[in-house]
Amino acid sequence: MRRTLLLLPALFLITITIVLGLGNQRSVEVKETPMRERPGFLGSPLTTLNYGDRIEVLGEQQGWTRGRFAAAGVEGWVHNSALTTKEIVVNPGTRDVERSATDTEVALAGRGFNEEVEARYREEQGIDFSAIDRIEASGVPVDEIAAFIAAGELNDPDGGEQ
Amino acid sequence: MSRSRYRDRPGYRAVIIGAAIAVMVMALVLACAGLGDVADFGTAVASQTGVISEQQADSVRRSARAVERSAEDITPEQEYYIGRSVGAVITDRYELYEDEEANRYINTLGQTLALFSRRPETFGGYRFQILDSDEINAFATPSGIVFVTRGLLNLASSEDGVASILAHEIGHIEYQHGLQAIRTSRITAALTSVAITGTQFATSEDLAELTATFEDSIDDITQTLINSGYSRSAEREADRAAVRIMKRAGYDPAGLIAVLEEMDLRLDPRGLDFAATHPAPDSRISDIRDEIDGYSHTARATDAREERYRAALGRL
User: Fold this and answer.
1) Dist. CA A157–CA B250, nearest whole Å
2) Domain span at residue A32?
3) CATH number of residue A56's parent domain
4) Does residue A87 sit in helix, strand or coil?
């Protein structure tokens, strides 16, 4: 009897783990981010995830999450700084708005300070945003960064020294 | 009573199954309950049992939510829009330095350093741009656009020195110092406004109201960046981040000290640039020496770094 009773806490923990595991999802909280074959910035991407995309967590390792992106049937690695535990709702409806009012784990995409607010601000202030748009378009491709690191004899960002 | 006889007792199995089901249900309930739900549940129980009135319960729920709003509650998407507008104010006041090779170099170096930070990815990514000004100044806008003047870059005499300047600015973005300059009342107003909690902008007044809050928030940040400066502790955090990022990347963190020593020589104490917005260079140097001590770096400025640094920034 005593031994059987000892099993009850174990059963309790197992149930909690299973239930939490089912909901173990992450959302992409940046405009876009690559899903990679290996946990590292310099590897080639399998696919690109967009803002609000949900992945199911399969594992974690040194700042990276391995996940399954069901919508494209792809499994790979995404850096944690691009992910949130929150659910990000793109094109939220009334029900989502209600949920977000009581649940801090729900965020609405495109709400608050957004493109519309920026446009109005731009108009009111008469500020030119073309320089910012140009600067924003000046991202450096990952192969150029890899070459820059190699030529400068810098450390490998994926080398585990993080 | 032997164990086997105990097990054979009628009803024993039913008790065990019952207990197991009870335990699983308890686990299920606990696993599904979020912390917010617990707070709501607490106030619901308290109001139903007559401890507090329904009105009081409402107000508890509201104030609990209002207190929650701080810089951390601003989503990366909103941080990005704030950053773009702060950047636009800066490009409105300063001329851009139009040298493609120099900007490309700074941009590549900065985006490389960001990979070694604690926040390699932001909503729109990191970008680095030189401003055509002799002032000794730099501005890190929320979410990742960094501006640095010719005057500041000229204090460095190597790639490691330039890296220290950019890594310090990445530190400000990592710690979200810009967002923290926004008054909390504005953040609460913005994050609880109808514009967010409604399904759409109900009226043009809603949009006007939110835009006004946005404008005030941009002002808070640009005032801090341009006029008043961050707190001393924020600057110390950014300096520490710079040292950490440089060590990880394989740059010599002493490059930061070399830049600060040069700054100490050239900074006009009455100036409206770093002199007004940053702690004195010599005090920053003594603060970061401890961070650098004990770092047995094998990193030495290489010929390749020296060469590309001179090629890109030699004309500044």
Assistant:
1) 10
2) 24-111
3) 2.30.30.40
4) strand
Is residue A83 in some structural domain?
A: yes
Interface test with A, best of B122, B132, B191, B211 (most A CBs within 10 A): B211
Q: How far does B264 lie from chain A, in Å, by closest CA? A: 29
Question: Who's near A23: CB < 8 A, 6+ residues apart?
Answer: none
Contacts with B47 (C-beta within 8 Å, 6 or more apart), sequence order: B53, B54, B56, B57
Q: Do the Cβ atoms of B87 and A117 come closer than 8 Å? A: no
Residue B222 and residue B182 in contact, taking contact as beta carbons nearer than 8 Å: no
Which residues in chain B are contacts of A93 at CB distance < 8 A?
Answer: 199
Where is A65: in which H helix or E strand? strand A64-69
Buried-state track A78-96, b at ≥16 Cβ within 10 A, e below 16:
bbbbbbbebbbbeebeeeb
Among A111, A124, A153, beta carbon nearest to B304 = A153
CA-to-CA dists, residue A130 to B5, B40, B78, B84, B269, angstroms: 85, 47, 19, 11, 35
**Residues near B313 by Cβ (< 8 Å), separated by ≥ 6?**
B102, B105, B106, B153, B162
pTM (2 decimals)?
0.82
pLDDT by residue for chain A (162 residues), tens only, comes to 566 666 666 666 665 555 555 569 999 999 999 999 999 999 889 999 999 999 999 999 999 999 999 999 999 999 999 999 999 999 888 888 888 877 888 888 988 899 999 999 999 999 999 999 999 999 999 999 999 999 999 999 998 544
Contact B87 A132 (CB under 8 A): yes
Name the domain count of chain A. 1
In a domain, A117, yes or no: no
Interface contact flag, B108 A145, Cβ < 8 Å: yes
ipTM of the complex: 0.86
- Choose from B2, B3, B6, B23 for mutation: most chain A CBs within 10 A: B23
The chain A residue lying nearest B306, using CA atoms, is A152
Q: Do residue A135 and residue B87 have CB atoms under 8 angstroms apart?
A: yes
- Residue B192 to chain A, least CA–CA distance (Å): 9
pLDDT of residue B165 exceeding 60, the answer is yes
Which pLDDT band, with edges at 50, 70 and 90, does B195 fall under? Answer: low
A149 contacts in chain B (CB < 8 Å): 112
Cβ <8 Å between A124 and B85: no
A110 to B201: CB separation less than 8 angstroms, yes or no? no
* Residue A152: inside a domain: no
* Cβ within 8 Å, pair B88-A113: no
